[in-house]
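A note from the maintainers: we've had questions about how concatenated examples are separated. There is no special marker in the raw files; a new sequence line simply starts the next protein. For clarity in this README we add a label.
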Amino acid sequence: MQIQPFSVNDGNGIRTNIFMAGCPLRCKWCSNPEGFEQKERIGWYKKQCIGCGACAAVCPQGIGIDMISDSGNCIACGACADVCPEEARRQMVSVMDADDVIREVHRHRLFYSYSGGGVTFSGGEATSQPELLDCLSRELYDAGYSLDIESCGYFDFERVRPSLERMDLIFMDLKHMDPDVHKEYTGVSNGLILENIAKLGTLPQSPDVVIRIPVIGGVNNSEENIASSAAYVHDVLPSAKMELLPYHRLGMVKYDALGLPFGQDGFYTPDKEEMKKLRSIAAAQGVTITDFR
């Protein structure tokens, strides 16, 4: 989906985030809808479009300026994105060779060295491409990089174990403790996620673990859910920390660019006082609260 250098919110120091497409969840609040599938995608950012027609002139499918009205014919070749003078057309998901990813990471090695940073695998869902994750993590680990991963937690643990064993820090989401509510809002039950959180304790090098709760107003922000989530984490993985992140709508523009319905009007962002209270409720269960923002 993207290789984002100079990130400071997804691990220690300055990091490069590698966003890998494909995700088994369909969270109704997702801010990266382009990463649902492992499929090349072009987005049209209408507010940036000046209507010059350069995109239409090079499109092999004959798609006009209004890409959304004819998006079913788009083959995501990227020709329009290459010629757009305002970056109104963008390649949101592309195919990239592992060697090219590694070369891009090497370009910023100096920043990792001086800041104590490294590389963070994210998505989409990095574990949805286990072979690529294994290749990249092995090569970068052998090159001496600090490695972190952000995951929804829904994956075959043993298949991904070799990659997880190379990580210094693992972020894993816990979106709701009620399996039925979890399925209603994400498309899957939380059973496998809860199992994988517990299995993190079996990794031999004992990486740091941060269990993240994206706090969605109207979904999982009840005091009962936060308390039970923290109690579970403290029970099965006492050394893990927790991070509570307030819901945001930064991905709204991506839905528009892809011609997808936003559908998040029923959610709200908890204010600072509510977040403070929820963090104290989690801490009361014995877990340490952390913040990478």
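[label: protein 2]
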Amino acid sequence: MGDILWTGSSRIARYVAYVLLLLAAFWVIFPVLWALVNSVKTVADTFRTGALIPFLTFHPTLAPWRSVLGDPQSRQALLSSTLVSLGTMAFVLVLGTPAAYALARFFPRRSRDITLWFLSQRVLPPAVVLIPFYVMMVALGLIDTWIGLILCYSTFNLAFGVVIMRDVFRGISIEIEESAKVEGANPWQIFMLIALPLAVDGLIVSAVIVFAFTWNEALFASALTSQHAATMPAFILASRSTRGVDFNTASVNTLLAIAPPVILSFFVQRFLARGLSFGAVKG
């Protein structure tokens, strides 16, 4: 259908589409290129007009990368981001996948209303619940801990896991499960041995989305951590020196922060394309 619309469109419409796509690509790529160029500059070069092209207008250096990677705090922030993101991803899948299956199979009529309630949790501005979460974490003794951040992020990202996996399970033919039930399989066996293997694409999509959202979160990471459990976004926000922002080291930190989700998406993009299409035509 898309090919028919494209081949049947006028030449002017194609040119307009090309221009819009080029502008969108430039809008996305320019910040990354800016960070790449500044990550190999000295502090003086970052403020010098005309230092734009490596080897032509300035001499590149890897000193900012050595400085950042050699800093124990930056390595600790990377470790914290990795553990918290993976922990949140696992916790959301463990809790959200059975809940999504129950919504799809045992509460089909009320499924839409309950799913809408799950989504409403994401509409709530995070800043509204920041103070209650902080008070609760203080009472539990979980300030500046990985477990505290995992519990906090799981609260917000659980809705995505439930909504995505609900549509995935609804897209699986129920006749397959009924055949297994006739053969004597109990509900738990049907869920573990039949539904889950058929829902691998959805599981990967949910895992990637939760990982990316957790990795990029900065508000709660800044408020609930200080040293030990500070993640990369919180570390970047706190990396101002007494003389202001060192744009070269800030660029290195930015590239380190955005690299894992981007690289992960390249490996699982074929699963993302199919998994995100589940539920596209169902209510």
